[in-house]
């Protein structure tokens, strides 16, 4: 059953007319949330506490999506389907409630299939294991005639990940890249859920970029090829690049039993390609491209960085032409596509140093992005790599080390993995060894507690820093730019109103007495429920929680612990809520506990700190309990108060007021 959507919009599957998205800001979920809301669905969502104050949460709220911070059974209403991010695992109160109420529980990929099935001949899919983010975003851009929507994992630069319009929808079917190493199916995947029947979708077109997986998961080769074949047999138009062996194998499979009436378009440099890339030449602002389709040549300039991204856009152009789009319109739109957010995208420049971001994971992708970045600067290239996945980083250690040869300096972040723990050697050692062999000693470094500080010591005017990764690396770029913009970190406040205290006083000068009272309550470690019970200002726990969220947004603090550090440094909080011996005799803290405290003061989430330390969650929990014992406190907020007053952490305070449009 479908629900009537806003006029002119593709029909909305009845199963998705009211949904709750678990992990609504995770990769791929934001695009789905935006499309559903635009199509008329009633959308709610939840995010981990670490995402509190994140720009993505605010953006979804502006799109009309009610997002709750933290996972709580009360967040899931009884009238909706639960759609969850593929990385959700373990005990989960919202999924427990969904099961108890016998509500449908859908993974993101099943929800996307439902959208495609309902859209029918208006659905255009992009699939594969490499380059799909660029190809899908480019195709959505090329088909954006005001009557085309899209659901993307990663948006085009300056665009959104999801948009509902017209009867046509472009869907990126690539699985979430952040969960390929997640624990085996368990928890919610094995729970009984009401039977949900989905129609088999018949797509207007499918662009399949690649189907091959990589070691050590050899079985993924066949599974990926089988999945691609199933998709290929359900589409009227099939577009296949010829530069990937896996798509060549797929074409051979399909040739054994052709799909009646299907139009197959091949894209590549071979003379027999349906859409032949005749020229692809780098210029100062992109790639001058000539594409021949049906004996007609089309010339255009692609303002993207990296030949591999330019080829992906060419595949999207071929798909748009095969769908019957006017060539001149396609060419004009292609010239306006500036790439994908985070895919060799320049973040900004500070002190003459440019910071660029890359989402590359595979060694070939890393090498291609490093080579492309090398062409963007006449200065030094500093590559900062966050390897992706323990198993794959270990299997590709030599190739990853070799992929960094084009950089002048290399910094290695801890491996990004969702695994709580692992046995065996750290693959970072093998990557480091290979990189040293290729680059030489003195040019390869492990990052310590403050990667941005290390990078700041390596760069000079005219240099480019390429940050590669999809985990903690995503947050390093903004932190590095902030560091470059304020090269001299402030010191701990001295008695009296010194420069640093004056700076934060300026930042917090618009706080009302009520906000100051709330900040003191937060620093005391009181929960929203405690605050509501002990104050006549807030009528409910929800009201107190919203007030805390507003105060965090108002000050720019990422979480309660950072706000506590700022408030203590600014002398809004002058003492812990109870006496502690740590103030009279400051303890000597182990380095890892010091890292945790400093990370919180800098605004890092506990999960980011765990990844930086490269420890499992149970081990991190032990460190945190030890921290509380050392500081003689009951709550983590009180730990921050003691740490600041004792000079155990350095507090970098905001110097500018929060934007005036934020009101109490």
Automatic annotation (TrEMBL):
GO terms for biological process: cell division; cell wall organization; peptidoglycan biosynthetic process; regulation of cell shape; regulation of DNA-templated transcription. InterPro entries: Mur-like_cat_sf, Mur_ligase_C, Mur_ligase_C_dom_sf, Mur_ligase_N, MurCDEF_pg_biosynth, Sig_transdc_resp-reg_C-effctor, Tscrpt_reg_LuxR_C, WH-like_DNA-bd_sf. Keywords: ATP-binding, Cell cycle, Cell division, Cell shape, Cell wall biogenesis/degradation, Ligase, Nucleotide-binding, Peptidoglycan synthesis. It holds the Pfam family Mur_ligase. Residues 508-567, 586-643 form the HTH luxR-type domain. The keyword Nucleotide-binding applies. GO terms for molecular function: acid-amino acid ligase activity; ATP binding; DNA binding. PANTHER family: UDP-N-ACETYLMURAMATE--L-ALANINE LIGASE, UDP-N-ACETYLMURAMATE--L-ALANINE LIGASE-RELATED. This is UDP-N-acetylmuramate--alanine ligase.
């Amino acid at each position: 059953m479908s629900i009537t959507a806003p006029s002119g919009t593709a029909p909305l599957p009845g199963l998705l007319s009211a949904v709750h998205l678990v992990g609504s800001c995770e990769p791929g979920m934001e695009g789905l949330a935006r499309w559903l809301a635009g199509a008329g669905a009633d959308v709610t969502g939840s995010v981990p506490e670490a995402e509190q104050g994140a720009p993505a949460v605010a953006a979804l709220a502006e799109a009309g999506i009610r997002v709750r911070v933290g996972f709580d059974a009360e967040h899931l209403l009884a009238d909706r389907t639960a759609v969850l991010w593929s990385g959700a695992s373990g005990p989960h109160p919202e999924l427990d409630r969904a099961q108890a109420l016998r509500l449908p529980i859908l993974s993101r990929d099943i929800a996307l299939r439902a959208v495609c099935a309902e859209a029918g001949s208006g659905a255009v899919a992009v699939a594969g294991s490499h380059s799909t983010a660029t190809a899908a975003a480019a195709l959505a851009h090329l088909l954006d005639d005001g009557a085309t929507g899209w659901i993307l994992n990663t948006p085009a630069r300056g665009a959104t990940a999801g948009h509902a319009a017209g009867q046509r929808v472009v869907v990126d079917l690539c699985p979430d890249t952040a969960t390929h190493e997640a624990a085996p199916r368990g928890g919610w995947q094995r729970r009984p859920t009401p039977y949900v029947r989905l129609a088999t979708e018949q797509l207007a077109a499918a662009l399949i970029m690649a189907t091959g997986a990589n070691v050590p998961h050899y079985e993924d080769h066949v599974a990926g090829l089988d999945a691609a074949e199933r998709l290929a047999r359900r589409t009227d138009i099939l577009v296949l690049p010829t530069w990937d062996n896996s798509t060549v194998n797929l074409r051979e499979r399909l040739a054994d039993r052709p799909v009646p009436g299907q139009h197959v378009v091949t894209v590549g440099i071979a003379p027999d390609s349906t859409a032949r890339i005749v020229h692809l030449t780098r210029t100062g602002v992109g790639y001058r491209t000539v594409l021949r389709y049906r004996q007609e040549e089309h010339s255009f300039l692609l303002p993207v960085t990296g030949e591999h991204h330019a080829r992906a856009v060419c595949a999207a152009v071929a798909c748009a032409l095969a769908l019957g789009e006017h060539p001149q319109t396609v060419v004009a739109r292609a010239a306006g596509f500036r790439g994908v957010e985070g895919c060799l995208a320049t973040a900004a420049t500070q002190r003459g140093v440019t910071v660029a971001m890359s989402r590359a994971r595979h060694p070939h992708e890393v090498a291609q992005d490093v080579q492309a970045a090398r062409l963007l600067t006449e200065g030094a290239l500093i590559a900062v790599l966050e390897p992706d996945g323990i198993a794959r980083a270990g299997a590709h250690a030599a190739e990853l080390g070799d992929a960094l040869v084009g950089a002048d300096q290399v910094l290695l972040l801890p491996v990004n993995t969702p695994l709580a723990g692992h046995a065996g050697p750290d693959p970072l050692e093998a990557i480091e060894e290979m990189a040293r062999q290729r680059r030489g000693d003195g040019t390869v470094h492990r990052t310590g507690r403050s990667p941005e500080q290390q990078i700041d010591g390596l760069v000079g005017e005219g240099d480019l820093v390429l940050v590669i990764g999809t985990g903690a690396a995503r947050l390093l770029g903004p932190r590095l730019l902030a560091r470059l913009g304020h090269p001299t970190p402030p010191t701990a406040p001295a008695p009296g109103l010194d420069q640093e205290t004056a700076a934060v006083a300026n930042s917090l000068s618009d706080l009302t007495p009520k906000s100051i009272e709330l900040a003191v309550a937060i620093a005391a470690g009181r929960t929203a429920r405690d605050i509501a019970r002990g104050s006549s200002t807030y009528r409910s726990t929800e009201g107190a929680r919203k007030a805390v969220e507003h105060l965090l947004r108002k000050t720019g603090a990422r979480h309660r612990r950072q706000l506590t550090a700022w408030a203590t440094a600014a002398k809004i909080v002058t003492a812990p809520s109870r006496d502690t011996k740590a103030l009279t005799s400051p303890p000597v803290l182990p380095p890892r506990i010091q890292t945790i405290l400093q990370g919180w003061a800098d605004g890092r989430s506990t999960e980011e700190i765990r990844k930086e330390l490269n420890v499992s969650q149970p081990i991190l929990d032990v460190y945190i309990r030890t921290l509380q014992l050392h500081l003689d406190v009951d709550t983590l907020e009180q730990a921050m108060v003691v740490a600041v007053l004792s000079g155990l952490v350095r507090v970098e305070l905001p110097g500018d007021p929060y934007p005036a449009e934020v009101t109490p």
